[in-house]
User: Fold this.
Amino acid sequence: MNTRQSAGTAEATRTTYREALREGLREALRQDDRVFLMGEDVGRYGGCFGVSLGLLEEFGPDRIRDTPLSESAFVGAGIGAALGGMRPVVEIMTVNFSLLALDQIMNNAATLLHMSGGQLNVPIVIRMTTGAGRQLAAQHSHSLEGWYAHIPGIRVLTPATLDDARHMLAAALADPDPVLLFEHGSLYNAEGVLDGTIDAVGLDSASVRRPGTDVSVITYGGSLPKALAAAETLAEDGISAEVVDLRSLRPLDDATVLESVARTHRAVIVDEGWRSGSISAEVMARITEQSFYELDAPLRRVCSQEVPMPYARQLEEAALPQPASIVAAARKAVA
Amino acid sequence: MSTTTKRASGPKRAGGSRRPSGPPADEPRPGRDHRLEVLRQMLLIRRFEERCVELYSAAEIRGFVHLYIGEEAVAVGVGQALREEDAVVSTYREHGHALARGVPSDAVMAEMFGKVTGCSRGRGGSMHLFDAERRFYGGNAIVAGGLPLAAGLALADRMRGTERVTCCFFGDGAYAEGEFHETANLAALWQLPLLLVCENNLYAMGTSLAREHAQTNLAMRAASYGMPAWTVDGMDVTAVEAVARRAADSVRSGGGPHFLEARTYRFRAHSMYDPDRYRSKDEIARWKARDPLVELEQRMRAEGILDDPATKRLEEDVTSEIDAAVRSAGAAPYEPVADLLRFVTSTTGSTR
Ligand SMILES: Cc1ncc(C[n+]2csc(CCOP(=O)(O)OP(=O)(O)O)c2C)c(N)n1
Ligand SMILES: [Mg+2]
Assistant:
């Protein structure tokens, strides 16, 4: 189950993805005094993307903890604090910088439970920004969440909607294992209406964001709005696209993907990561392994071009999946 | 976990600093019993590892095995300064740290055998010993990888207001890693209750101290982060214990992180695969002449608190403990292959 409806008469509120994330953090900090937020510029500065703005004033510098520029040390310290009974939320400015902490994430967070024969849980949540679209060039724009999804022992979440931005953190904190939460940089300003009747979301399942019958467009994170826009265009041509939001790259919810493919018999996977060795390749492999005979057409995908992300707008746009390229791929799939 | 833990005969941590009265905290307990216990722990580590060498030759133990022989005074001396509620984070050369921490020798031996009764259920091996109950957080085979983790354990204590110390062991090689320097800065900045123990055995695999550090005065550099940093003769367990007590007590009472450099030497090669071509026979012989076990024994004999019968009893006691550990490890089952995917995540059997 993806969501839990509340019984009350909660109203829908207009908000942004950024504010929804902040509300999720605020709620977690209020509800559990073991929860604290730590990272570069999360306090005084308010978070480099403004997510934690105002939290320092409410919770103080002990729990909204500014760190030095030491990704490895403060991510590792988060892991140690989790072992020591806390519930740390560690913010890394962007996924690109998380590579300086990759040792701690991969060699400690992901392995400790298994290596210790089940003795040590690591209930840490690591949040970071991912993705391109803001002309930040080749060291601030990559989508490496697919790499992280390669690692057994961690969860990889990609909230793409306001409701997931608002509620995924609580579920992530309730998980006894390490959770990586990827916030797409182009989504922070996304505005919309928060469904006031939802008061919890699950982490295990993908979600059909737009039902359809002709082709499945399977995506996640920052590509979801693009996929939905493409589906709108396709509808004008009489092509009914079903848009599936993976929500979680590890575990991958095969069942929802396969059910969708069983309905449409055609699929396009949209992934902002590079094509080679990507999460899109994994989704395709799982479909062919398990639902080969459901397919009426070869699987297609739309990924980032295999190039370090360029700065110039026209080049960056050409490097990324766009509604038009998704539409083109879907047309080929149904042709 | 081990099914046959022998708490009574296992190495105990001295609780000297817990006693309300007695000698000042920074002085080792002078008593005969305490000295004997220290000697016993060192002897247990020495004989345990010697047995591991035999078992390695017999192919009972596989993988990378890094021996601590020659360095026992550091683990045991520092161990005296720690309390049950404290935490230890270690390296891949950690048999001594684990045994000194009180991880039962049969659980450690079973882990070496890869048995399900091992302290990590056979999933870790020599380099990944764990014991959550004794707050022994590994066993880390990434050089310096345990340092940030130790800072985090200390941070948790700091935030919860508990008076616990986290002790992190690492080598002179680890000192060159960014993770050491990031951690030292963070720990000093946040005044974390962290005891950093650098075991300077003069080599990182085949690279000598002078070939890995532009400035070889490690304590001086550590002090530059804004923490007390001391150097101690790591072959003298009494000296190690004294300085470790002073440091641990200061850490415990809110003095922030402390750094200890223990000057020591590994008598054996880096690992089982190392032909040891980078050290001269002379150098090794000079350090072996400072065997920490021999030094302690001689001192105890000179003080009249150790004689031949007592030595013999100690040897027999340790030997029988190791014999029993080897026997039980040999007889213990392997974990069924059906359990392969357990403990990847907390949901049993899930691979995600
Ligand atoms: C990050 C990393 N780099 C390299 C290695 C390979 N390696 C294992 S032990 C070692 C030497 C470490 O020396 P030191 O920290 O002095 O510890 P010692 O072995 O002397 O106890 C090296 C290079 C490793 N395990 N991890
Ligand atoms: Mg060394």
Remarks:
- Confidence is low (pLDDT under 50) at residues 1-23, 348-352 of chain B.
- The first strand of chain B starts at residue 87 and ends at 89.
- Chain B has one domain: 28-328.
